[in-house]
Amino acid sequence: MMTMKRLLFAFGVAPAMLVAQTPPITLDQALREAIASNLDLAAARHSISVAEARQITARLRPNPVMTVSADHLDLLGTGYNSINNAGPNEYSYRTDFILERGGKRTARMELAAVEKSVTELGFQDTMRRLIFDVESAFVDVQLARENLALAEDNLRSLNGIVAINTVRVRTGDLAVVELDRSQVAAMQYQTAVRQAELQLRQARNRLQFLLGRPVAVEDFDVTGPIRRDDRRISLEEVRGRAQTRRPDLQAIRQTQARNQADLRLQLAQGKIDYTTGVEYRRQQAPSGMGNSLGFFFSAPLPLFNRNQGEIARSQREIDQAAAQIRALEARVNGEVTSTWHQYFTSRGLLEDIEQKMLAKARSVRQTTEYSYRRGEATLVEFLDAQRAFNDVTQSYNEARANYARSLYLLDSVTASPVSIPGPAQP
Fold first, then answer.
1. What does the mean pLDDT of the chain come to?
2. Which distant-in-sequence residues (6+ apart) come within 8 Å of 232 by Cβ?
3. Distance from C-alpha of 353 to C-alpha of 344, rounded to nearest angstrom
4. CA–CA separation, 426 vs 421, rounded Å?
5. pLDDT, tens digit (0-9, with 9 covering 90-100), for 327-339
6. pLDDT digits over 253-284, tens only?
7. CA 321 to CA 114: how far, in whole Å?
8. Architecture of domain 32-74+84-414
9. Which residues contact 129 (CB under 8 A, 6 or more apart)?
10. Domain ranges of the chain
11. Which of 99, 119, 282, 422 has the greatest number of C-beta atoms within 10 Å?
């Protein structure tokens, strides 16, 4: 009886083909995996837990202080008499309580709550940047795959020409130098195929790194069309979304609220706290024992330190936050304007290539190849048409990728999807 391995080889099936290949992932799947597994985002997520722990600390009240003492003890063990005229023995138990004034605990809790809000907004901004990185890397894989397909198509076309030229040389219908020229051109496209394969592999590895995969998978691939939206987007629409939805803008504005809460806390810290205490004291005299109870009150005298330095620091940070808000708003506005112009230019370039260049380059290549196969065109003319078609198609692929990146960048600078991805452009 034949073994399974021999049976596979008998039917021409290699055992490696039985290994299940990794199915290609869509952009939505890539984004979900990156949000769940990206290492940098996971580290940033812990900052929220740290902020929550600080909230716990802010709610705590000062601990009471317990003091136990033994005083006037008989060290010689002879008792208290005319020789040892000390004593009597005293034992005391005392508890002190700190009474916070100025609403310190409330101010601490308010500050911790605002700091948590700032931390959450910072995490959202980190996630916004990660989403754009994943989208951009996804487009890079799509572009590299398109370029590889183009290089392989060019190589197949040149290999067909080489095969025809080989037959024509054998029949004496073509000079050997023409065959050599076609073979050199085919070798050049073979090199282009290898370079395209390397670029595709590098793009896949980068995307897998962003997804949080510790080891890159060789058969990793993506699926889905390169994004293409037809709805035109105005600059005013993009600017309005960015000013209201950007988490970094919201975070810097919340930082100003945080500084104001910190100022209230520092003003409260400038208020002195009172300390009250209760003491029970027991005395052991030769004539008998005595019990007593004492009450205590203490407060620092705010002659020098009234927390002036921290109050001044908080006031300066409020002014600094206001300046930072204005600077970030201006920077975001410039970023939005630059992104919108990039979107507008890439859209126009893509439409120009589609309407004016792509169809003509493809027609010229097909016509010249047909004419060369019939012996009506020279190899130089065919190679020129091939290179022109290759350049135009590569420009078209780059224009599609740049347009998709500009759309994703618009999503990123506005922190919200601008429009729904449309179908692939034929």
1. 86
2. none
3. 15
4. 15
5. 999 999 999 999 9
6. 999 999 999 999 999 999 999 999 999 998 87
7. 14
8. Up-down Bundle (1.20)
9. 412
10. 32-74+84-414
11. 119
